[in-house]
């Protein structure tokens, strides 16, 4: 587990200050989508070994939702950005 | 049954009033004026500028567009009125004077004491005088500000003050940390 997270608002902090929500790359399906699609969106998660993008909340600091891009194998943190700023969405 | 809703400090009875301060000292403010200011969307920079322009106000950063504004001179009511007049509809101001407790830690070992519980780089090059941030101290989230080279102020939610005081005394025991209400 990556142990130091550079919060864009608060600086470098230990992971204990954060809580993790999970996969940040999911896109909410259309309301009319099939039950199968909704089931996948709500319940089914990949558990990748390697680069992963997750929602983390800095609960003990600025309380902002952040997007942490990290490697689940090497623990390297590649980027941390505020959840309101979503640079990866434009490049998707 | 008659209830008495007297104004009572949450640390009353836990902190002596008449202990003389040692080399490293934790002072508990007996009264304080603290207002949370939350900038309206798009007004963050303008609000920050106005808060910085008033010398009586000490704005402690807690999140983007959000500050704890502290005044050592004004009463809670007057501070709230002054901020409402200063910021108008650019921000929401909520009086938290009775919801928080203000502690001031001073002494040459203040940094070493805090470093036992807070995962924040306290070196002056990383956390200089005037800087502030929300940080975990032990397992309690507090707002920490550096108010001098060897002086820090901690703002904690009232209901956590008792436990935080206990933790800080443990952290300061090796340095004979003293504790008293601020005269
Ligand atoms: Zn943060």
TrEMBL record, chain A:
Pfam families in the cross-refs: SoxD
Single GO molecular function: sarcosine oxidase activity
Gene Ontology process terms (BP): tetrahydrofolate metabolic process
InterPro entries: SoxD, SoxD_sf
Name of protein: Sarcosine oxidase subunit delta
From TrEMBL, chain B:
One Pfam family of this chain: SoxG
Residues passing through the membrane, by range: none
Entry superkingdom: Bacteria
Protein name according to UniProt: Sarcosine oxidase subunit gamma
Organism from which the protein derives: Pararhizobium antarcticum
